[in-house]
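haha ok so turns out i had the wrong file open the whole time. this is the CORRECT one, sorry everyone. sequence first:
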Amino acid sequence: MEWQAIKDERFKSLLEAVNSLHHRKFFDEKTSRLFCKDLPFFENYQLLKATEYSAHPPLSMRFLFNGSDVIKLNGTKKPILDVCKKDSLSITKNNIISYVKFFLDNVTAKEGSFQIIESIDDITFFENTTPKEKTAINKNILPIEILSVKEKAFKITASLLYSKCLYHATLKINKNGTVNIAKEKPVLTNLPVRKIMLR
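then structure:
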């Protein structure tokens, strides 16, 4: 699912709603842009990104919105779980991976965010990273696998990048929306990669 620019009559009212969540006006009508993305696991809420291009570097923030309600994603799991309660969260085999990526992308820990890695192209390397280093990392990337589907939870295995480490991990996803790392094994450390913050 790609980001779609919001250019219609919703732009002004959404920008006002976004600015009202902060102590000062971060986003100007002339120099900012709004983008939205559908979320297949929510019935009514979409992902909203506001970017202010006059800032250097450009300033971006993310929100969940349903047309009238705008909730800031602040790096904790609370706003996501609040929307899971409000909306009709529907996690299935078809969208479980999309949900886990969305959750991890928008929740940050002490050393940045966790990122599911499916291929070498998912990683932002330092410019001086050698082909040999990239090959070694690529050999340790496991495909995502759904281990079990139960009434109240899913379990998947995946490769996770956190800080400068690559892990093989088992994740438990509850039907209420919580995502927990049930088991993890570091396989590569001190990688030549950039720290992942909220994207």
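Helices lie at 10-20, 78-86, 96-105, 131-138.
again sry for the mixup
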